[in-house]
Amino acid sequence: MEAPEQLTSGDFTAAAEPFRLFEEWFADARASEPNDPNAMALSTVDADGLPDVRMVLLNARDARGFVFFTNTGSAKGRELAAVPKAAAVFHWKSLRRQIRVRGPVETVSDAEADAYFASRPRLSQIGAWASQQSQPLESRFALETAVAKFTAHYALGEVPRPAHWTGYRIRPVQIEFWHDRPFRLHDRVVFRRESPDAGAWSRTRLYP
Ligand SMILES: Cc1cc2nc3c(=O)[nH]c(=O)nc-3n(C[C@H](O)[C@H](O)[C@H](O)COP(=O)(O)O)c2cc1C
């Protein structure tokens, strides 16, 4: 199925750089996806080099890169502490589009993490305190008890950001755009640069 008329398709393989194209496709996704258009599969590697993958939400993005938030003690947090590199993929099924991102990862500043944490619903803030993400949980009751404890503890005033909760920024050195075409003759274009601090991107069209 061809993409509907109103989509910003054009010849995306001729785009000069990837960030603007990302914004166009992300805007289309937000307009058309029924939920979580900002969901992306995030891949990291463990100490044995075994890849790991899970969904996270893209919560901020700018010319520096793509930011998600999580618990530093989670599996992904521990993996990123050891190997600060990641890959992410967005797949917008109804648009038949995919974007892949790869690069080194940095922790966001405390100010950025504080600002995003402050914008979250209070119950999510409490949840960040109550969840020892990816650690064994004895029972649902244990989690609810932890939520009750932190709800009481932070009954008054603002909930501060836990030290174990922050954001990570993927600083892309590679961004690939893929769009479905009939008979699996898909369009692909990949942008690469030497390092996240290098300004210029090279652009290469790829066989499907
Ligand atoms: C659509 C979707 C979005 C998610 N977003 C996040 C997120 O932004 N941050 C997060 O820590 N976990 C998120 N999760 C949960 C993760 O997929 C995962 O279960 C959790 O982070 C633990 O992963 P880990 O043990 O590999 O660290 C999301 C799950 C789904 C299905």
SSE topology:
Elements: H1 18-32, E1 39-45, E2 51-57, E3 60-62, E4 65-71, H2 75-82, E5 85-92, E6 97-107, H3 110-119, H4 122-130, H5 140-153, E7 165-170, E8 174-179, E9 187-192, E10 202-205
Antiparallel strand pairs: 1-2, 1-5, 3-4, 4-7, 5-6, 6-7, 6-8, 8-9, 9-10
Helix pairs in contact: 4-5
Domain Pyridoxamine 5'-phosphate oxidase N-terminal: 33-152
Binding site for FMN: 69-70, 76, 98, 133-134, 178, 188
Protein name: Pyridoxine/pyridoxamine 5'-phosphate oxidase
What does this structure look like?
The protein has 208 residues and is α+β, with helices and mostly antiparallel strands. The longest helix is centred in the first third of the chain and has 15 residues, at 18-32. It has five helices and ten strands; from the N terminus they run αββββαββαααββββ. The chain has one domain (10-119, 163-206): Roll (Pnp Oxidase, Chain A), CATH 2.30.110.10. The radius of gyration is 19 Å and the shape is elongated. α4 packs across α5 (140-153). Strands 1, 2, 3, 4, 5, 6, 7, 8, 9 and 10 form a ten-stranded antiparallel sheet that branches. It has helices at residues 18-32, 75-82, 110-119, 122-130, 140-153, and strands at 39-45, 51-57, 60-62, 65-71, 85-92, 97-107, 165-170, 174-179, 187-192, 202-205. It binds flavin mononucleotide (FMN).
Keywords:
10-stranded antiparallel β-sheet, binds flavin mononucleotide, 208 residues, elongated, alpha+beta
Short recap of the structure:
This protein is α+β, with helices and mostly antiparallel strands.
Mean model confidence by pLDDT: 94
**Helix count from the secondary structure assignment:** 5
The chain-level structural class is alpha+beta
Order of helices and strands: HEEEEHEEHHHEEEE
Number of strand elements = 10
The best one-word shape is elongated
Alpha-carbon distance between the termini?
17 Å
If you compute it from the alpha carbons, what radius of gyration comes out, rounded to the nearest whole angstrom?
Answer: 19 Å
**Share in helix:** 25-40%
The CATH homologous superfamily is termed Electron Transport, Fmn-binding Protein, Chain A
The structural domain count equals 1
Bound small-molecule species: flavin mononucleotide
Approximately how much beta-strand content do the residues carry?
A: 25-35%
Spans of at least 5 consecutive residues whose pLDDT stays below 50 are: 1-6
What is the CATH architecture annotation?
Answer: Roll
- CATH top level is Mainly Beta
How would a textbook summarize the main sheet? 10 strands, antiparallel
Q: What is the CATH fold-level name? A: Pnp Oxidase, Chain A
Protein name: Pyridoxine/pyridoxamine 5'-phosphate oxidase
Pfam families: PNP_phzG_C (PF10590), PNPOx_N (PF01243)
InterPro entries: Pyridox_Oxase (IPR000659), Pyridox_Oxase_CS (IPR019740), Pyridox_Oxase_N (IPR011576), Pyridoxamine_oxidase_dimer_C (IPR019576), Split_barrel_FMN-bd (IPR012349)
Catalytic activity: pyridoxine 5'-phosphate + O2 = pyridoxal 5'-phosphate + H2O2; pyridoxamine 5'-phosphate + O2 + H2O = pyridoxal 5'-phosphate + H2O2 + NH4(+)
